[in-house]
Amino acid sequence: MSVVRRAVLGNLGLILLLFETPSGFAIFRFDGIHLFLPNAKENIWANFVKDYMAHDVIWLKEFKTFKNKARVFGHAGVDKELAEMIHRWHVPGQLLAVGKLEHKIVIESELNIPCMYDDTVMEVIWGIKNLMKSLVPDDDSKLSKEECLQMSLGMETVLMRHGIVVTPEMINEQIIEYASILYDCELYETKHSGFLTNCGDWLEEIFGIECKGWSPMKLATALKILCIPEDYIPHDDPELLLKLKTHGPDYDGILLKRTSVTIHREMVTAREVLTDTVEKLKLLTTEANGYPENPEGFVKQETSYLTLHHREKDNNFCLFMPRFDALRGTINAKSWKLQKEVDQGMNDRVPDFVFLAHVVDMVSSTQVPFAFRSCSSLPFATRLMLLPLWPVAFAFMLLQWFCSKTFTVSFYFLRGRLHHTWSVPYTASRSGPRGRGGGSTGNRRPRAGREASGRGSSGSTLDWRMAELLFRMEQRRLRESAMN
């Protein structure tokens, strides 16, 4: 279908786009197929969330500043310099997309070039404005407040589907990224809908199970139960669950086991990421409105030793002297469960950035806060006053080498990002992917983070699933664009 559209558009489906900046005009070459795909108005914005996404569909050809922009489209028609710039890149019969209706009227009448102006084109214009610093790097001007407050209709539609109400004043980079994650999660269900619908017809034909009205998630769960009946999968219909588990072994070797299990795993991950992202978006929009999410106005806190110690007065909650609490029966019943959750990292978050302080590097190991706080507060440098302490550091290095694992020295939040400092007794084997000593790494896999800090390997976090989902979706987009 995309090949047919490219043939109709001509020029391999590429069109020109005229974009007006505060100081001039830019000519882009754009993959025009995206303007004519089904639901294009709801989908185009997702190509302009990050600059590396946009560079796959749009390319800057020329940018020119104009001292007096008011005369570019005046009573005399199109300015000569702008007309020459358009003709320099325009191919006969090629479509030109513009961001204003008056531009369309003047260019079609004066230059005899077919132009396109509608809501779909305005979604592309919004995307260019969102990534203007990257797409038009030669333009140092800033958009006006009115232009910055424009909002993508497609992004607004996605947010409204999940009950997220935003105003143009609330839109920022973080909300755009989270909206993109919601969009990608929805794609995971729609991309498998054809396969799952056919499987639903097959279930109805063989088992007599009425699958009409089932969601893609329910169909994927039914296939997973048929493929691996021994696995525990929560289900709201016990009779249907028993029926599927009973007949599952009869179709061993007939079902596409690997495909069905993979689809179920991907959809479960997408559903969990979607739920987590909706919660984060609600929190962001609530903060933007300037009032707390809960009507009472109290700050919600996760359970911790300190909060429970001050809230529950009938015990010490094992805070200071657990052995005396055990002897006198004042141990809180929640203590063991909470300790287990903390030890296993069940409520932990994967750091966005990690600074690795390798113990084998004597210079960097003396810079950690618990060793010499005065030195760690200053820019990194080799200090002569620390030379006599190197034998002591060497002894601790040997002790850590044989007895210790990688552990978290400190952490802090900066602009919503979690930063960790890890002390690493080994150069690579205990800390996941190799990195330079004392260097920083961003977005490491949570498995390395959990093993390094000694918290076990239970359950990946939603932050990593979110990053993994985005990576897989981007790889799929690249493959599809290459095929088309």
Describe the fold and architecture.
- With 484 residues, the chain is α/β, with parallel strands linked by helices.
- It has four domains: 2-150, 2-Layer Sandwich (Nucleotidyltransferase, domain 5); 152-302 and 461-484, no CATH class; 305-343, no CATH class; 349-460, no CATH class.
- The protein contains 22 helices and eleven strands.
- It has helices spanning 2-9, 40-43, 51-54, 80-89, 101-110, 119-130, 132-135, 145-148, 153-161, 173-191, 193-207, 216-227, 238-247, 257-289, 305-311, 322-328, 335-344, 362-365, 373-376, 390-403, 446-452, 462-483, and strands at 14-20, 24-31, 58-65, 73-74, 77-78, 96-98, 115-116, 353-358, 407-414, 417-424, 440-442.
- It has a five-stranded mixed beta sheet, sandwiched between helices. The chain has a four-stranded mixed beta sheet with strand order 9-10-8-11.
- A hairpin with a 2-residue loop joins β4 and β5.
- The chain is flat, with a radius of gyration of 29 Å.
- One of its GO terms (molecular function) is snoRNA binding.
- Residues 428-460 are annotated as: Disordered.
In terms of topology, how is this protein built?
Layout (H helix, E strand, L loop, with lengths): L1 H8 L4 E7 L3 E8 L8 H4 L7 H4 L3 E8 L7 E2 L2 E2 L1 H10 L6 E3 L2 H10 L4 E2 L2 H12 L1 H4 L9 H4 L4 H9 L11 H19 L1 H15 L8 H12 L10 H10 L9 H33 L15 H7 L10 H7 L6 H10 L8 E6 L3 H4 L7 H4 L13 H14 L3 E8 L2 E8 L15 E3 L3 H7 L9 H22 L1
Parallel strand pairs: 1-6, 6-7, 8-10
Antiparallel strand pairs: 1-2, 2-3, 4-5, 8-11, 9-10
GO molecular function, one term: snoRNA binding
